[in-house]
Specification:
This protein has 165 residues and is mainly alpha-helical. Helices cover 85% and strands 0% of the residues. The chain has seven helices and no strands. Helix 1 (2-19) packs antiparallel against helix 2 (24-47), helix 3 (51-58) crosses helix 7 (157-164) and helix 5 packs antiparallel against helix 6. The two termini are 29 Å apart.
């Protein structure tokens, strides 16, 4: 949700630039300002990204402990998050391919009568199950990536093992 907000802010900067006319410098300045704000937001998100694993491990809430922990680790963490994102894109493509027959069942069933036929219900249930499993795998992947990063950065395997097992 916070990333969506920042994308809207960047879009507002770009839209404002185009709304102000065809002045090249104004548009370019606002686009660059929007991208700068977006990059700053990504920086803050990455630096605070280990708050949740740290809270589980230390059994207390320390919002800015992640900021200290991720010092000089920005680019490795960005790489990990990009790799995790690429894997989740592959998972979502797989979910889309596997669930395609069920989605087609829903569409063909509704095309005839626009009623809840057994075909529509079967397709809906199948699609719901497959997409739920895919979402669960993606959620576990993101959580485990952050937990592994936290464990790697702290080197405290004994305390973190209790918290994440």
């Amino acid at each position: 949700l916070s990333t969506l907000f920042m994308v809207a802010v960047v879009g507002a900067f770009i839209g404002l630039g185009f709304a102000m006319g065809q002045h090249g410098r104004t548009v370019l300045t606002l686009v660059l300002l929007g991208l700068l704000v977006f990059c700053g937001w990504i920086f803050v998100l990455v630096r605070l990204s280990l708050c949740i694993p740290q809270t589980f491990s230390e059994r207390r809430i320390d919002l800015f402990g992640s900021w200290t922990l991720t010092r000089n680790q920005f680019w490795p963490l960005v790489g990990m998050y990009l790799l995790t994102w690429l894997i989740t894109v592959g998972i979502q493509i797989g979910v889309g391919i596997i669930s395609l027959p069920f989605r087609l069942m829903m569409g063909f069933g509704l095309q005839k009568t626009f009623e809840m036929t057994p075909t529509v219900i079967t397709g809906g249930v199948g699609y719901l199950l497959i997409s739920t499993i895919g979402g669960l795998v993606v959620t576990v992947l993101y959580a485990s990536a952050r937990a592994a990063a936290y464990r790697s950065l702290t080197g405290d395997r004994e305390n973190t093992a209790d918290a994440f097992n």
